[in-house]
Amino acid sequence: MTTPPVRARDLGFLLHDWLSLEGLLAYPHFQDHGRETVDAMLDIAGRVAADTFLPHYKAADQHEPHLVDGQVRILPAIRQALAAYAEIGMFAAPFDAEVGGLQLPHLAYSAAMAQFMAANVATAAYPMLTMGNAELLVRYAGAALVRACALPEIQGRYFGTMCLSEPQAGSSLADIATRAVPDGSDELGPRYRLFGNKMWISGGDQDASENIVHLVLAKVPGPDGKLIPGTQGISLFVVPKVLVDGSAFAGQRNDVVVAGLNHKMGYRGTANCLLNFGEGAHHRPGGEAGAVGYRVGGVGQGLPIMFQMMNSARISVGLGAAMLGYRGYRLAVDYARDRRQGRPLAAQKGATGGPVAIIDHPDVRRLLLAQKAYAEGALALVLYCARLVDEERHGPAEGRTEAGSLLGLLTPVAKTWPAEWGLAANDLAIQVHGGYGYTRDFDVEQLYRDNRLNPIHEGTTGIQGLDLMGRKTLRDDGASLAILRRRVQATVERARRLPALADFAHALEVTWARIGALVGHLKAAGDDAASLAQATSFLSAFGHAVVAWQWLDQAVVAGTLDVAPDAEEAAFRSGKLAACRFFFETEVPRIDVWLGIVGRRSDLTQTIDPAAF
């Protein structure tokens, strides 16, 4: 058995000491579970991740999915790993018992999933998408579709995708052209024939599952036979690769064809496909043209429904990015402890001793501290959001609205901050390894390549910035930001009582006061276009301020635990306090720079002539 990819104490501190998992387990919905149940699941997940996901990490990068007679073939080790994932109940972990789930808190599931993502993020992408697909169906689809498609996904027999982007549209979903023509109905509900192309479909085809359930956005023609422009006409359809029980064409191969594979710089073990719907000459269910699909929700409701899966996927992207940064950081620590090179500055003149471990050099420690602050800060952020999911769905009624409001505000941050700064951690991990870092003999170069995709996955950093500044800030009534600031202030008040943290508490209070004042200024100015031009800088500042708050909150906990530590635990707590100090001394000053850029509302990017480039 290999070593689990995540240190148990790192997860234990976040779950039990900081996020109070026991408080969630007191909710009636989770009454069948206790700390022992969760810890057992985390232990099993760590062992399976280490034994089945981690061993083929490099092999999956070197042996990409490929097409054989129109079927995508993936590395056999991926199939075996996903079977092990299903066997321990991970597909079922967060689902309700009534659909075959284990009914674990989303926080506990996320901590378990973190270990699989740290071990092999490309293989973990298959269940991540499948579980988001099943969650959407359970929430919005009819009972027959849930029974035919979602339940086999929860069992790990079927895998799922989401099919949004098109070659000509990219992230602009208003411009999709896939159309869905009514075709009657059967036991599964309103039936349609779909025609169009979808691009960048992760898991779009593979040979690891019995079936693939595609969730497809398409437009239903209006009475004049034309597609409605914009997003209003977009609907959502379930399009199985092989038509399922309840369909008039059950057992027949659907008209979904892999037109090609995208070859990426990272996540190479995840098959990424261009799919054609309704263009196959050999797969015509019932002898008619078009891919058979079943509508979920009403006509024109596709985008709001799909946003549930998209937002879940955004937080999952953040978790994956955090774990890639985390694993690179742990590898850098191990390397820095083992690699002996150079001598301490004070001993270089006339030194006769041998080289020291590079972790003894201050600049290497700086690199490691930065990685720790980024990677562990990113993991904390995503797990905090996972707890909000549990509070919103299953907590006391009076707190659900607040949790949902705060989760909505933090979602673009939870996707983007780990993606940007987890990548920065991977960059520093390469630096610690020196020349070895950019060779394929070490994992850190692949971790960097994998993580470089995450600032683009599920909406680029720029798109997340527009979401945060536009919908979540300028066009919001301020309630969500007020909730966040109350929670920040509560941390400030606790930190003020600890002498080692008092200065950081003051700095955090000043930072959030400045953010509040800037938001008020931008709203009063009224020119959203000028403000939105600086949305990415606002997202950078806001994200750093959120992570600063969470580092201070963790430091308060680490500084007030009432159990006397042994040497190992004392070192762990010291590391938390050092990372908090590093973040406030080195990272928080960046916030003022970003806020200054936003406040100036420069028109340069709006007015520069494209010819100037």
TrEMBL record:
Recorded GO MF terms? flavin adenine dinucleotide binding; oxidoreductase activity, acting on the CH-CH group of donors
Domain Acetyl-CoA dehydrogenase-like C-terminal, first and last residues per copy = 487-603
Names of required cofactors: FAD
- Say which domain of life the source belongs to: Bacteria
What residues does the Acyl-CoA dehydrogenase/oxidase C-terminal domain cover? 300-467
Cite the Pfam families for this sequence. Acyl-CoA_dh_1, Acyl-CoA_dh_C, Acyl-CoA_dh_M
Instruction: List keywords of the entry alphabetically.
Output: FAD, Flavoprotein, Oxidoreductase
Under SUPFAM superfamilies, the record lists: Acyl-CoA dehydrogenase C-terminal domain-like (SSF47203), Acyl-CoA dehydrogenase NM domain-like (SSF56645)
Locate the Acyl-CoA oxidase/dehydrogenase middle domain: which residues? 162-277
PANTHER family documented for this protein: ACYL-COA DEHYDROGENASE, ACYL-COA DEHYDROGENASE-RELATED
Which family, according to UniProt? Belongs to the acyl-CoA dehydrogenase family.
- Output this protein's name: Alkylation response protein AidB-like acyl-CoA dehydrogenase
Protein's organism? Nitrospirillum amazonense
State the organism's lineage: Bacteria, Pseudomonadati, Pseudomonadota, Alphaproteobacteria, Rhodospirillales
